[in-house]
Amino acid sequence: MEPVPPSPITWPDGGGLTNEWVHGLMSSFQWSSWNLPPSQLPSLLPVSVFDSLVLTASKILHKERNCVHIDGLDSESNVVVVGDIHGQLHDLLFLLKDTGFPCQNRFYVFNGDYVDRGAWGLETFLVLLSWKVLMPDRVYLLRGNHESKYCTSMYGFEKEVLTKYGDKGKHVYRKCLGCFEGLPLASIISGRVYTAHGGLFRSPVLPKRTTRGKKNRRVVLLEPEPSSLKLGTLDELMQARRSVLDPPWEGSNLIPGDVLWSDPSMTPGLSPNEQRGIGLLWGPDCTEDFLKKYELKLIIRSHEGPDAREKRTGLGGMDKGYTIDHNVESGKLITIFSAPDYPQFQVCIFTPSIIAFS
Asked: Exposed end of the chain (fewer CB within 10 Å): N or C?
């Protein structure tokens, strides 16, 4: 016998979410994932409720700084950092139940890539938004490279939303894109741990200006040479313009793209990330410089699953869900990945990882 379907979700009077409401949302999404075709999701989550949740969460997210500082932890506090989830709703629900739901002494930092490549990206993102609204100073949602128009149009999220919401799908998709723009780029936990989806970033350098042509002279912007790349500062990160649908790969606003798309390397220095066409590669010397300058002990990033690491030499594989990529004098750089069935439904099961510390 099929379980009794839950009632359609309603937005609470006054707009204040409760623990009961958030748990009800998770239970409803779990039920619908097992019992409803995707196109029937609006019968459970009306567009009006979606709008209210995304609007409320967006107002909170847009007020946060590019790099959120998570302070005020005491001896009873613990912090859980979660890597890529990629629409794997059931694994997110298990993670929250198994590790412990957010509460007064349990902080969560989600390191981006909530959507694409999994069947339940929308539900996954909305569950996280509901926790953000309920506990805004205990749950932190950072942006990943897949929280962009380009990636979601290429890797499944746009199609997922249009399938689930039909003629209202474009509206739902646009609202999600607007919410993505408000997601912070990085976090610093207790002044000791830096987290970001991709990692480190360059100091912005304005392109050089020159002119071409004698009769019709026009200004041409020349991109800086790779040799001029310099590690960026936290002040520069704070000043970057993050509210863009797609982080640019050229121009003066390169920090968002670097933070979301960059990868570590065993080669010293900074260099363009030619394989991705955006972002940087940075070496152990850059990790050491960044840790030492800001008196940090650890950098946690995500962004690379087992498929990505198979193509890169000199760095550890992701079959255990994490790797220690740089082990330098001042601390470590760790990559974590939290989607165990990736790419989903291709029988590529591996051990997912999170990082929990007190």
From this structure: N
